[in-house]
Amino acid sequence: MYPIDQVNFEGKRVLIRVDFNVPLNEMMEVTDDTRIRAAAKTILKVSGDGGKVILMSHLGRPKGGPENKFSLQHVIKTLSETLSKPVAFVEDCIGEKVAIAVDKMNNGDVLLLENLRFYAEEEKGDEFFAGQLAENGDCYLNDAFGTAHRAHASTAIIANFFPTDKYFGYLMEDEVRSIDKVLHSTEKPVVAIVGGSKVSSKIGIIENLIQKVDAIIIGGGMAFTFIKAQGGRVGSSLVEEDRLEQALSLMTMAKDRGVKFLLPTDALVADRFANDANTKVCPIDAIEDGWMGLDIASSSIAEFSKEIEAARIVLWNGPMGVFEMETFAKGTKAIAEALGRATQKGAFTLVGGGDSVAAINQMGMADQVSYVSTGGGAMLESLEGIELPGIAAIRAK
At what angle do helices 244-256 and 203-210 cross, to 10 degrees? Predict the structure, then answer.
């Protein structure tokens, strides 16, 4: 697999799968253009070569056909402004309308097709539908990491129609390289920070990371399942009772492999789930009844920060507490700051997973780490060691 820097797309019809599944307000205006900006580099590379750029994406979850609120025409204005050039739009993604629009394109032009999910065949991974999409291109680029874990027609099946002329876009290339850097690093130590509310959603990730890293830091609501499994008192904190044995098993697995398994030692607890609740700090294994842990506290912050700042590679997936409430955001912010300091010292720091990305963006610190992933579910499956269909399809040559 070689990068698109080594390819000249002049005169070619280039189908690019992008992820323009962006939020829209009631006026049908884009409210967060992150994904559009992330795709711009690839689009401008192909257009700059003199290639004909044909963009494919989905938007939302339409049911039973076209719906105006899910039309990709609503992203044209933002996309044109981002690229600083006009973008044409066609009200379909297959068929005669598309063929005519593509035929009219000049070298360097950009054309956006209508929402792929207006056809049920897209999510079904229908081969005939993928072939209809493929008819409009001479080569295929996948730059939609956020959908790479789906074996949909436009993300995986279509690649079969381009045995040699298929590539990762810049965004996809960066995502794959960043994850590989964590999971297959020759630099040590590698530290993984895993947070969030539930152990059950992260078991596969933790099991895989134990094989790859030198230390795992556990935070967020899931920590209380580990604490209770060891006999600690956790009050009214979130616990998955049916995962206690599994939690102990993960800790044993880490110990057997010589991997540090760091749990919080103290917690900021509250008497109710509210920003203005009464709070106090206590040992995480001695929380009184009627109190719940909603963030890590100073001793945990200090220990975790020290571990992070001594690392060469750091992965952060999941917050340390209920960061959406200001009262319980201190632990998550402190971890973000520790990642920033580690990055300044030369460490590679990767932030991935919806809540972690939301947290670091909320805190205005995304530019202080090495890489912020654009893919939620795709990132999580990658960390579990699952080969994503959208990536496998490109690598299969």
Answer: 10
Pairing, β 52-56 against β 110-113:
parallel
Instruction: Specify the pTM.
Output: 0.87
- Euclidean distance between CA atoms 155 and 111, whole angstroms: 18
Nearest to 79 by CA among 111, 115, 114, 47: 111
| pLDDT band of 354, cuts 50, 70, 90 | low
Q: Do the beta carbons of residue 92 and residue 148 sit within 8 Å?
A: no
Spell out the residues 6+ positions from residue 35 whose beta carbon is closer than 8 angstroms to its own: 18, 19, 20, 21, 22, 146, 374
**Domains of the chain, with CATH numbers?**
4-171 (3.40.50.1260), 185-383 (3.40.50.1260)
Upper half-sphere CA count for residue 313 (Cβ side, 13 Å) = 20
What residues are annotated to the active site?
35, 198, 354, 377
Strand, coil or helix: 193: strand
Residue position matching structure tokens 């993960």: 250
Render pLDDT for 277-320 as a digit per residue (tens, 0 to 9): 999 999 999 999 999 999 999 999 999 999 999 999 999 999 99
Helices 298-309 & 330-344, crossing angle to 10 degrees?
A: 20
- Cα 341 to Cα 353: distance, rounded to the nearest angstrom: 21
Residue 375: left (phi > 0), alpha (psi -120 to 50), or beta? Answer: beta
Average of pLDDT values for 117-141? 97
**Alpha carbon separation from 195 to 64, 217, 220, 292, 325 (Å, rounded):** 37, 8, 5, 17, 16
Phi, psi of 126 (to 5 degrees): -70, 125
DSSP of 197-233? S-STTTHHHHHHHHTT-SEEEE-STTHHHHHHHTT-E
Cβ-based neighbours of 8, under 8 Å, separated by 6 or more: 49
Cα gap 164→56, rounded to integer Å: 20
40 contacts 82 by C-beta, under 8 angstroms: yes
**Angle at the Cα of 128 from the Cα atoms of 140 and 38, rounded to 5 degrees:** 30
